[in-house]
Amino acid sequence: MANGTKPEQASRKASRGASRLEGSRTAQVAGRLGMACWGVVHLVVAYLAVRVAFGAGGQPDQKGALQEIGSTSVGQALLWVLAVGLFAFGLWQFVMAATGYSWVAKKGKRVRKRIGSGVRGVVVLGLAYTAIRLATGSGSAGGSGDQTQQEFTARLLALPAGPFLVAVAAAVVLGAAIAALVKGFKQSFLDDLDTGDLPAGTRSWVKWLGTAGYAAKGVVYAIIAVLLGYAALRSDAREAGGLDKALLTLAAQPFGVVLLVIVALGLAAFGVYCFAAARAHKS
């Protein structure tokens, strides 16, 4: 028969299903390794932030972290590892955006998590591209996070009702800041982990690492939102900024060195948390 017997059809169907399952597992493993690379980036950003706090200079953002890694004696090889890992992590985030978070009961919350994964995927793939450019020496990594943010703000300001659109963008970033702070202090990030997969002695540490990490990210997002809001108020894109300007703004405040070191420790905590999440994240 052209289509084979029913047992043969069932066998082929089972084989295709097993192949898809194995491919899914492979994608998950690659994505988890990529999440560990995402943690490395945060650790280097934290290191750069501490350097800035003590006046050593540097560009304390994700691009600056990749450039710092590339400057080491084994930097090119590390950049390739990070590029592959970040690319895999970005793709995994897109998969999560499309079909993930099935364990979340509330549909609205599940949709928000999927949108967050999609945005994260875009950011991470951009960093993977930057890492490839640095590894191949095909050009600079592009502008800093400040320059990218200012160019985006300038394009918005050039549109009709531009200041209003920038204010809306600031409100969105502020919403992300509040969400990160709430996620950290309520420890709701644990809902996305199978904590039973973690070594028994590390579970309490993972809680505190995640709390400190999300709190630090919330503070940084809040500063970026304030910078965007001020840019909207002044109709001046130069007032906007990314992660690097947010950290430098924090350093310029009273007790800025102490504040920046605290936030840097939080970012480092998030980096270490990523290693645990890479092992225990639900899929």
Describe this structure in words.
The model is unreliable at 7-23 (pLDDT under 50). The chain has helices at residues 6-53, 62-70, 75-99, 107-136, 145-157, 162-186, 203-234, 243-251, 256-280. By secondary structure, it is an all-alpha fold.
Question: What's the gist of this structure?
Answer:
The chain has 283 residues and is an all-alpha fold. Helices cover 76% and strands 0% of the residues.
Shape descriptor reads globular
Helix content: over 70%
Structure summary, number of beta strands: 0
- Through-space gap between termini: 40 Å
Q: How many distinct helices?
A: 9
Low-confidence stretches: 7-23
Give me some keywords for this one.
283 residues, globular
Give a topology summary.
Blueprint: H1 6-53, H2 62-70, H3 75-99, H4 107-136, H5 145-157, H6 162-186, H7 203-234, H8 243-251, H9 256-280
